[in-house]
Amino acid sequence: MGDLEKDTTVVAVDGAEGQYTARLSDDWAIWGPNGGYVSSIALRAAGLASGRARPASIVTHYLGVAQFDEVELSTTILRQSRVATSLRVTMEQDGRPILEALVWGVDDPTAGSELVHELPTMPEVEGPEGLLSFEEHMAAVDQESPFVFWNNLEHRPLAWRDDWPPPGPVEPTARWWMRFRPTAVFDHPWVDACRLLIPIDTMGWPAGSSAHAYREPLGVIAPTIDLSVRFHRAARPDDEWLLADAVAPVAAGGLLAATGRIWNR
Known about the structure:
By secondary structure, the protein is an alpha+beta fold. The chain is about 20% helix and about 35% strand. A hairpin with a 1-residue loop joins strand 3 and strand 4 (about 30-35).
């Protein structure tokens, strides 16, 4: 089992402004290093380089699959204002490109300056307490997860089928309550944002592949080629459980698109 804060730590390179190193932990393996996990390392580098209070957004292009080893990160400030900073983060490993990310970091708004409204509403679902965990469901059918990545999350799906694969297409959605292990929440806003970022990246394939699971084995996997996340608000200190709500509305031309939202209670 990994630890999100420890495993996304970036270290400044002495005498090289905006340069950092990090080590990818194999506790986050799912085919290769989980894409949201790798983006989380880029996000934390941006946080150090910007000095801002919290992230507003990240857009990542994944350029290569990293090994579970040290990576080098270079940050470039593209725009800096009184309350916000735009940065580019480049991650390489042994001279090979791994990702390019664009990040906005912002300071908290001053009193009276914040506009607030919210059109989407949280789905009406039962809470996590009465739901079986993923491990309990898998144990009931005498199976284990093939990926160590899932050891880092306690997740409780809102819908589950023991008779898998299904006899036909099912709706391309996924909804899980989840909390990180062994630490569920983090004091530092740039670290805590990573627990929102990772499920946004991860949930797309479980949602999208559901529509095609009746054809298993599919013979394909879907590595993320780009990821775009907006951090509208931070989770509260008591928000251990988060609801990950994903839908994959389109799959065509060799591409699958997915959209996700993360809700607290």
